[in-house]
Design goal:
Number of strands: 8
Strand content: under 5%
C-alpha cells in the first residue's frame, strides 16, 4: 500500500467575513445594531434591549434618548418571525412609559401593532402586541386610533386565547376602549358579551376583575343589559357574590348588578329567582365597607323607577337600609342615606322608614363626615315632605339646635329643609317665609310659637272648641274631592247591590267649581248615595210599572228599608275611610282668578306689585288713616266669623276687615299663585309685612345701566301700593307701633 498523503484544508474564500461574537456593555452599541441587515443580529439586539428595558423605567427613558424607538418600529413589521417577535416584545414593555407612548402616537404605530394580533402570529407576539395596545389605550387619542383602525375586533377574538396573559392584556385594552360610547356599541355588535362572561370563570383573579370592570362600564347601556340578561349574566354575577373566596371581586360585581337593577324586567327576574333576597341579606351581613356602600348604591339606582320601588318595598328594603345606617363606615352611611332619599318617592316606604330611620338619620347630622351629614339632611327632608307623622323629626332637630354643643351647620340646614316642607310650622316658628317658600293650599297661620313648642295639626285645631285665642287663618282654595277608591270600596261592601254610580254620588270637579260651595241639601243627598235626578228617575220607573199595585205596595217598605240600610252603611264607610279635609274657601279662589286678570296684563313688576297691593287692601277693608287705626274694629269682625263657623279656624277669604298680618298673608298667597316674588315677615304686636325686590330705573343720561335690585316694604294699610325702601324711616314706622 502506498503512503497516505494528508489532505490539506482549503482556506476560506477571500470575500467571506469570519463570524464574530460581539459582547457589548453599552446600550448605545446595541441600539446601533438595530440597523443591521442581518436577521440574527437584529433578533439578538432586540432580545438584549428587551431585557434592559424590563429592569426599570429609567432604562426605557435611556433607550428613548438613544433613538431606539424608530428602528424598533420598523422591525415590528419585519419579515423574519423571530425579529418581529422580539421587536414586538420590546414595544410591549416600553409602552408603559408615558414619554415613549407620546412618541408612539406621533409615529402612528397602532396600525402595525394591531396587525400583530392576526391569528397566524406567534402567541408571544399576541401577548406583547396586546400589552402595547393596553398601555396606549389609556390616552384618548390612542384610544380613538385603535378603534378607528379596527383594533377592537381582533382584541375580542383574543379573549378566547389559550394564553392567560393574552386574555388579560386584551380585556384590559377593551376596558379602556369602552370608556367611549362608540366602543361600547361596537362591543355589543361584535358579540363580545359571551366571551367576557367566560372570563368570569378564569382561575386568574386579575382577569376576572378586568372583565367585571368592563361589564361595569358597558352595562350602563340598556341594550347591553338586555344581552347580559339573555346570556344568563346575572347567574354568573350571583355565583361570584355567593363565593366567599371571591370577596375581592364582590365590589365590582355589585357595581354591575346595580346597573342591571335599573331595568324592571331584571328586577322582577331577580325577585322571582330569590336573588333579591340574597342581595339584601348579603348587604346586611357583609363586613366589607365597600360592599355595603355599593349595595346601597345599587338600591339607589333601582329606586328611581316606580315599579322597582314597589318590588323593593315588598322585600322590606327599609330594614336593610336602616341597618346600613348603623354601620361603622361613613361611605356606607352616606350611600344608605341616598338610597332612603330615592325610596321616599314611595309613600309606603316613607312611612316604613319613619319609626326607626328618622332617629338614626338625626344622629348622623352630628357626624364629622360632610358627605354623611349632607346625605342625612337630604333624606330627612324627603322623609318629612307631605308626611305629617314623619315631620315630628322636627322636635328632635329643634332640641339639637337649642343645644350649643350639639348644634351644627347640617342640623340647622336639616331643620331649615324640613321647615321648607312645612311652611305653617316655619312661619309660626321663624316668622319668615322667603320668595322661594310658595304657600300652598292647607297652609295656616297659627301665630308665633316659641322654639320647641309643637304646632298642632290643622285637623286638631279644627276640632278644638271655640275659644278667645287668636283665630287660625286658613289658606285653602282647593276644591274638595273624595277618592274614587272609597266609592269602589263602599260599593264592594254592598255586594254589588247599589243602584247609583259614582258619577251620581257626587259632582264632577267642574260642576263644583261652578257652584263653588256645596249646599247642605246637596251634601245630604251625596252622602246618602243618591242625587235628585236619580231619585226622580227611579220614581218614574215605579209609576210606569204599577200593574200589580197591591203587590208593589207590599214590597215597597222592604225596598225603602233596604235603601236606608245601604245609605247608613255608606255613610259609615265614607266617615271611616275619607280623610279629614280643610274647608274649601271659594272666595279665595275667586280672589286669585280676579287678581290674575287685573295684575298679569300689566307690563312691569312694579306695576303688578302696586296693583295687587291695592286689590288686597280693597278686599280687606280698604285704606285706613294712621290716626284712626284704633277705630278699625277688625277684632270684632273676626270674632263674629268664628262664632258663625263655631270654629277657631277662619278661611282667609271670609275676612272683610283685616289688619297688617291678614293683608300681608293674603298678598303673599295671591302673589305666589300668579308668579310675583315676595317674602312674608312677621313683626311684633300683630304687625306683618311683605318685602319685594325691584330694580330702579336707570339714572337720567345713562342708558343700559343695570342697577342691582332694591328691597322694598309694601304698604297695604295706609297708602296701599306705596313702596318704602327697606331701612327707611317710613318703612320702620310701618313695621313697628
Amino acid at each position: 500500500m502506498g503512503k497516505k498523503v494528508k489532505k490539506e484544508v482549503e482556506p476560506p474564500p477571500k470575500d467571506v467575513f469570519d463570524p464574530l461574537s460581539i459582547e457589548s456593555k453599552k446600550a448605545a452599541t446595541v441600539v446601533l445594531m438595530l440597523n443591521s441587515p442581518e436577521e440574527e443580529v437584529l433578533a439578538k439586539a432586540c432580545d438584549a434591549i428587551y431585557k434592559f428595558a424590563s429592569k426599570g423605567d429609567e432604562n426605557k427613558v435611556t433607550l428613548l434618548g438613544l433613538g431606539a424607538v424608530e428602528p424598533l418600529f420598523k422591525l415590528v413589521s419585519h419579515e423574519d418571525p423571530l425579529v418581529r417577535r422580539n421587536a414586538t416584545m420590546v414595544f410591549g414593555i416600553m409602552a408603559s412609559n408615558n414619554d415613549v407612548r407620546k412618541l408612539l402616537r406621533e409615529l402612528d404605530v397602532t396600525n402595525s401593532v394591531i396587525a400583530r394580533l392576526a391569528p397566524e402570529e406567534d402567541i408571544v407576539v399576541h401577548e406583547f402586541a396586546s400589552l402595547c395596545l393596553a398601555h396606549m389605550a389609556v390616552e384618548y387619542t390612542s384610544k380613538a386610533q385603535i378603534f378607528e383602525q379596527g383594533g377592537l375586533e381582533p382584541l375580542i377574538r383574543l379573549l378566547s386565547s389559550p394564553d392567560p396573559d393574552v386574555k388579560k392584556n386584551s380585556v384590559e385594552c377593551i376596558y379602556h376602549l369602552v370608556q367611549d360610547f362608540q366602543s361600547r356599541a361596537a362591543v355589543r355588535e361584535l358579540n363580545a358579551i359571551p366571551a367576557l362572561l367566560e372570563l368570569l370563570k378564569s382561575e386568574y383573579p386579575v382577569v376576572q376583575l378586568l372583565a367585571l370592570k368592563t361589564f361595569g362600564v358597558i352595562s350602563n347601556d340598556r341594550e347591553t343589559r338586555i344581552i347580559l340578561r339573555e346570556n344568563q349574566g346575572l347567574d354568573h354575577l350571583f355565583k361570584i357574590l355567593e363565593t366567599k373566596e371571591f370577596n375581592d371581586l364582590h365590589v365590582e360585581a355589585l357595581a354591575v348588578v346595580a346597573n342591571c337593577l335599573e331595568d324592571v324586567d331584571t328586577m322582577q327576574l331577580i325577585q322571582q329567582t330569590g336573588g333579591l333576597k340574597k342581595l339584601l341579606s348579603f348587604a346586611e351581613m357583609s363586613t366589607i365597607p365597600d360592599i355595603q356602600k355599593n349595595a346601597a348604591k345599587a338600591i339607589t339606582k333601582a329606586a328611581y323607577d316606580p315599579e322597582n320601588r314597589r318590588i323593593l318595598h315588598e322585600e322590606e328594603i327599609e330594614k336593610c337600609l336602616v341597618t346600613l345606617l348603623g354601620t361603622d363606615n361613613d361611605g356606607a352611611k352616606a350611600a344608605a342615606s341616598q338610597a332612603i332619599s330615592a325610596m321616599c318617592e314611595s309613600l309606603a316606604s316613607k312611612d316604613a322608614f319613619g319609626i326607626q330611620g328618622i332617629p338614626q338619620l338625626v344622629q348622623l347630622l352630628s357626624s364629622e363626615n360632610e358627605e354623611v351629614k349632607e346625605g342625612a339632611a337630604i333624606a330627612l327632608a324627603n322623609l318629612t315632605t307631605a308626611s305629617p307623622s314623619n315631620a315630628s323629626a322636627l322636635d328632635i332637630l329643634e332640641e339639637i339646635n337649642l343645644s350649643t354643643g350639639r348644634k351644627n351647620n347640617f342640623s340647622e340646614g336639616a331643620l331649615d329643609k324640613l321647615l321648607d316642607n312645612n311652611l305653617s310650622q316655619k312661619y309660626s316658628q321663624m316668622g319668615y317665609l322667603s320668595s322661594s317658600n310658595i304657600i300652598t293650599d292647607g297652609f295656616y297661620d297659627y301665630g308665633q310659637v316659641k322654639p320647641g313648642v309643637k304646632l298642632l295639626s290643622l285637623e286638631e285645631l279644627n276640632l278644638q272648641e271655640l275659644n278667645d285665642h287668636r283665630a287660625i287663618i286658613l289658606v285653602n282654595a282647593k276644591l274638595p274631592d273624595v277618592s274614587l277608591s272609597v266609592e269602589d270600596k263602599s260599593q264592594d261592601r254592598y255586594d254589588g247591590r247599589t243602584t247609583s254610580s259614582s258619577s251620581s254620588i257626587r259632582k264632577s270637579s267642574k260642576e263644583r267649581a261652578s257652584s263653588a260651595v256645596v249646599s247642605p241639601v246637596e251634601e245630604k243627598q251625596e252622602s246618602s248615595g243618591r242625587s235628585p235626578s236619580s231619585l226622580s228617575k227611579s220614581s218614574t220607573r215605579e209609576k210606569g210599572s204599577r200593574k200589580g199595585k197591591g203587590k208593589k205596595e207590599e214590597e215597597k217598605p222592604k225596598d225603602e228599608e233596604e235603601l236606608q240600610t245601604m245609605s247608613k252603611i255608606r255613610q259609615e264607610v265614607i266617615l271611616e275611610k275619607v280623610p279629614w279635609l280643610p274647608p274649601f274657601d271659594s272666595i279665595l279662589l275667586d280672589y286669585i282668578m280676579d287678581a290674575s286678570k287685573i295684575v298679569l296684563p300689566l307690563t312691569t313688576t312694579k306695576e303688578q306689585v302696586v296693583a295687587l297691593a291695592q286689590f288686597v287692601a280693597d278686599k280687606m277693608g280698604g285704606p285706613i288713616e294712621r290716626d284712626k287705626l284704633h277705630e278699625f274694629s277688625w277684632e270684632l269682625h273676626i270674632s263674629e266669623i268664628e262664632f258663625e263657623l263655631k270654629c277657631n279656624v277662619v278661611p282667609i277669604g271670609k275676612i272683610k276687615k283685616g289688619t297688617f298680618y291678614h293683608r300681608a298673608l293674603l298678598f303673599k298667597v295671591i302673589a305666589d299663585r300668579i308668579g310675583i316674588g315676595c317674602s312674608l315677615v312677621r313683626g311684633e304686636y300683630g304687625r306683618a309685612w311683605n318685602e319685594v325686590k325691584l330694580v330702579d330705573d336707570s339714572p337720567q343720561g345713562i342708558t343700559g345701566l343695570l342697577l342691582p335690585p332694591q328691597v322694598y316694604i309694601l304698604d297695604l294699610m295706609y297708602q296701599p301700593g306705596c313702596l318704602m325702601k327697606q331701612g327707611s324711616a317710613e318703612a320702620d314706622h310701618y313695621q313697628r307701633i
